[in-house]
Amino acid sequence: MAISVLTAFWAVSLLFVITPGADWAYAISAGMRGRWVMPAVAGMLSGHLLATLVVAAGVGSLMAGHPLALMLLTLAGCTYLLWLGGNLLLRPAVPQAGQGGVGDSGSRWAFKGFCVSGLNPKVFLLFLALLPQFTDPHSSWPVPLQIVLLGLVHLCSSLVVYTLVGYGAKLVLGSRPGAARMVGRLSGVAMIAVAMLLVVGQFAK
To answer: Which of 6, 44, 110, 162 sits in a 20 to 30 Å window from 24, CA-based?
Structure first.
C-alpha cells in the first residue's frame, strides 16, 4: 500500500480516536482506579481488532445486510454501556493510589474494555464504512490484508490516545477526589448518552 494512503487513513482515524466517547470514559475510569489503565486499554484495543478482522473476513458486509442482526448487536452493546454508565454515575471512580477496588483485577478490566468496544455497534459500523474506502483492489496486496493493516494503524493511534487519557486522568485528578467524582459521573453520563443515541438511531431507521 502507498504511504500516502496510510497517512490519509491515519489522519481520518485519529479524528475519530480523539473524539470523546465511551472509550474515553472507560479509560478515564480506569485511570482513576490506579493501576488498571493498560489492561483497560488492551481490552478496548482487542475489541477494535475483532471489528477489523470481522470486516476483513467479509462478515461485516454480510451482517450489514441483516438488520435484525445489527439491531441485536446494538441492543446488547447499549445494554452493557447503560450498565457501566449507571455504575459510574451512582458510584463514581475516585483516585486510589495504585490500588484497585474490591474484586478488581487486570483481566476483569480487560474484559470490560473488550465489551465496551467489541459490543459497540458504532465501532463495527465505522470500520465497515471506513476501512474499505482506503483499499485498492488493484494492489498486489489482497484487500483483506489491506484492511488488517489499516486496522493496525488505527490500533496504534488508539493505544497512544487512550493511554494518555487514562494516565492523564490519574495524574490530574489523583489528588482531587471531588473533581474525580465529578469526572467519574460525567463519564457515566457520556456512556449512557452514547447508548441512548444508538438506541434512538436504531429505532429511528
So the answer is: 6
- Interacting residues of 162 by C-beta distance below 8 A, sequence separation 6+: 17, 23, 24, 27, 41, 44, 45
Does the pTM surpass 0.90? The reply is no
Please name which of 199, 203, 185 lies closest in space to residue 78, comparing C-alpha atoms.
Answer: 199
> Half-sphere exposure (CA, 13 Å, Cβ side) for 183?
27
Cell numbers 490519509 correspond to: 8
pLDDT at 25 > cutoff 90:
no
Percent of the chain clearing pLDDT 90 (strictly above): 15
Structural domain span for residue 151: 22-92+102-204
Residue 199 lies in a domain: yes
Query: How many domains does the structure of the chain reveal?
Result: 1
Kindly state whether residue 123 falls inside one of the protein's structural domains: yes
Distance CA 127, CA 149 (A): 13
Residue 133, in any domain of the structure: yes
CA 73 to chain centre: 15
Q: Which of 10-24, 101-115, 155-169 has the highest mean pLDDT?
A: 155-169
Contacts of 170 (CB under 8 A, 6+ apart): 31, 32, 34, 37, 95
